[in-house]
């Protein structure tokens, strides 16, 4: 058969010729074409249905590049457009990936602003007054306290240093006359004095062991400053007496201290001078200092009323016989919750809530959370409670001390110390993140000293004067913000697509719309063809049945 005769009898039963992309072919009722196809058309007949569907959709679209790549143009220009388009898409994806990685790092930056308080005044922070000498010598050497000191020492401290302190220094210090104390002061006060360093070490070891035991703390409270009048001679706030508002506060390092404004009930309205704040006259009491102590003066700790004292951050040291000015500037730190880097939290972890007192649950503080976390670890490992940390609620347990043996440990307090060292290596233990909003006070202090001749003349009646006041009613707010927010991420992605492809988010939505429409049209065509074939098969069966009926 010749090629001409083969083409003359071409019977194209091809429904794809109905597609508008194959121009120049008009099929009749029985799919008989009025024109003969060329070999180029024959190649196009072999394209799958889904290819032609997407070609039609992209050809109708006005998307830059995609129309040239997926349309019906000449193959060489389409190939060139395809190479350029693939390269630009690759660069776009690489840049977008970099933007997303930077966002997922959740880096933060710091914004500093100066704001005014919501009300017309600011609340005075809590002020705690301590003496660097934790023991009142006159109480320490009272005859009625001697037996109790020796008894509690034997119960709580079994080391040779404690025994040496009691048998040697305590006996000589309290059994002798005033001249013996002065001799100790001269000997211990000499520079590079090994004896003085030993005595100082023995004292703090003895003091720390007594502080670790409940009965020992009761004894130290008795030996420390019995009332505010023994430590403070005058207290004025806004030129009004505030002496009656002091509360006892036992500190491990400084003995009995006294706190003011613990409830945060005193507002500061005027900010002109230091006279609008707190004025304290503190008794120096140099004759009450133990000879082996190398530091003198007072400690003023300033902190928020709802937070526990952190001596390392809150303390300001006051020189004896000096006038010290402590100016305060309120600062507020605002942090971000997870998933930001260095996240914050406003609630205690669930595993710690059951051990908290109701008043501590009201305000979250990092210090309370970490102390309670350490306390629970000590309780589980050593079966005792460490006095240095918050006592857990709803737990009945003995305190750690040197006289309560633990499992294979030298003592339960030694066990507690080892557990604490291991726990504190992880600053984020128990999920104790920083508070989301934390009030701090920037302290600016200065001091004026009396002339040495005047200091010598006043003698035992000497005092130290302290002024604590607010600089201004402005709050320095340090707010952490995301270095890359989700809006910045979207803008970066849009800029990258516009730079490389000339696309916007609307064009991206258009591409998604084309893909969805193409898939729906292909699925609809498949369903239509399946139903059509089923109807043809049913019609064929029906005709066969009719034929069989007629002839049989």
TrEMBL record:
Belongs to the amiloride-sensitive sodium channel (TC 1.A.6) family. PANTHER family: AMILORIDE-SENSITIVE SODIUM CHANNEL-RELATED (PTHR11690), PICKPOCKET 17, ISOFORM A (PTHR11690:SF248). This is Uncharacterized protein LOC114828614. It is found in: Membrane. The chain crosses the membrane at residues 500-520. One of its GO terms (cellular component) is plasma membrane. One of its GO terms (molecular function) is ligand-gated sodium channel activity. It is a multi-pass membrane protein. InterPro entries: ENaC. It comes from Galendromus occidentalis. It holds the Pfam family ASC. Keywords: Ion channel, Ion transport, Membrane, Sodium, Sodium channel, Sodium transport, Transmembrane, Transmembrane helix, Transport.
